[in-house]
Amino acid sequence: MKKSFLVLSAIILLGCNGLKSIKSAFINVSPYEHYVESLKKAELMNASMTRAWVSAGQEVFDDSVIVNVPFSESGFFPASTPEARSYRFKARDGQVLTVDGAVKTQRDAKAFLDLFVRDDEGWERIAYADSTFTITHEFSGDEECVLRLQPELLANVYYAINISLTPVLINPVYGASNKSIGSFYGASRDNGKRSHEGVDIFAPKGTPIIAPTDGHITRVGLNKLGGKVVWMKDTRRGHSYYFAHLDSQMVKPGMRVHQGHVLGLVGNTGNARRTPPHLHFGIYQSGSKDPLYYIKQVEAAMATLPIDTGFQQMPYKTRLRKVQLMAGPASKLPAKASLEKDTYVKIIGQSHDWYRISLPDETEGYVLRRQVVPLEGGTHLKLDNAGVLLSAIRSDAIPVAVLQADTAVEILARFDDYNFVKTAEGKAGWLYN
Asked: N or C: which end of the chain has fewer CB within 10 A?
């Protein structure tokens, strides 16, 4: 084991500089995959610590925490334990994901940031961080996402991460907000004979209608339903944008337009003559698409948490009779477990008023910061029977000490059938109850 550890240390130290330009040197090979290959070439995949590292990277797909975007978190990875963090969230067709990250390490170590989406066969990596530790990805469909953050082996790593979602386009009605959208995609029209292939954005008559992105005008015309209409082509995405019920048109076919260019003015022409003035906005690409999330503004991004190099993974315990372990840092998210008072928890990250914690069985979740206290001030007693003090609540855990009957201990916390105790000599560990 000691020999494997030394060899592993050597390959990691030697490999750091080689990871700096992975993206340019290995097309479509992520830094994470390249690092795994370096471990294989060094014949280290069977080392116990490597196996634990690989396992941690895979387990995130089975037990990811759930976050509401925008989201910020900071935390710490200890070199002694191979770990990974993950964040599960939903992205919608027409949104752009931006992940801004930062890491600090004691040496030139690497941390890997990878974005996955669920498909029929499991989880597919679709993006990874660039040299600035940033991911930007535009979604062309609704997706369930997992973002994984994992440092290389044997590295103490402090991190801060910020996740946000923004619309691909700007609202095509100048000055409009989310509240201006009053009729949605798929709504019934003409007593169910057809459905609404767009959204209606209400604004005073004469309000400028602007290009939501760069493109060119393909058609300017008049029809029974839409009245005065404009069609615009987004060549980057292959979309056609349809603007209807205009009071006046201010572009001509063939014109190139840039985002913000005035296309016309809001009106109520066509079949909207008896409705308040509004723009009907549609998106087409081999059929109609729901435009809502292409233009809907998401709540403002949370303040990015700074890297706290004073933060360490610390043992805490719950201070209330019942504490709900939440799937994410919000009281409206599902609860994963109900924790009794004095349950042992390890703080591994922080997101504003919430601590990200890990239980002794490695279950992760969030609790409010006020619901836990440092691990101190327990119950003193003498053991009735001899026992083995363990480093963890596992059958293969390393023994810390053999305690004889009548040994004085302080019970600091609990989990399942184990007590976390400290002896008078300062030895601490788990004792089967």
From this structure: N
Domain that holds residue 211: 178-295
Check if the beta carbon of residue 375 is closer than 8 Å to that of residue 428.
Answer: no
The full length of the chain comes to 433
Question: Which two structure tokens, joined as six digits, stand for 197?
Answer: 């292939």
Residue 82 lies in a domain: yes
As a whole number of angstroms, the distance between CA 181 and CA 165 comes to 19
Q: What Rg, from alpha-carbon coordinates, does the chain have?
A: 28
What does pTM read for this prediction? 0.86
Helix (H) or strand (E) holding 433: none
CATH code for the domain in which residue 339 is found: 2.30.30.40
Q: 19 and 130 share a domain?
A: yes
- In a domain? residue 301: no
- Sheet containing strand 428-432, edge to edge, reads 379-382, 408-415, 418-423, 428-432, 387-390, 399-403
**Average pLDDT per 10 consecutive residues for the chain, totaling 433 residues:** 44 41 53 96 95 96 92 93 96 96 86 95 93 94 97 94 96 96 81 82 98 98 96 96 98 98 98 95 95 90 72 89 96 95 96 94 95 93 94 89 95 96 94 90
Same domain for 412 and 363? no
Q: 3-state DSSP call for residue 281?
A: strand
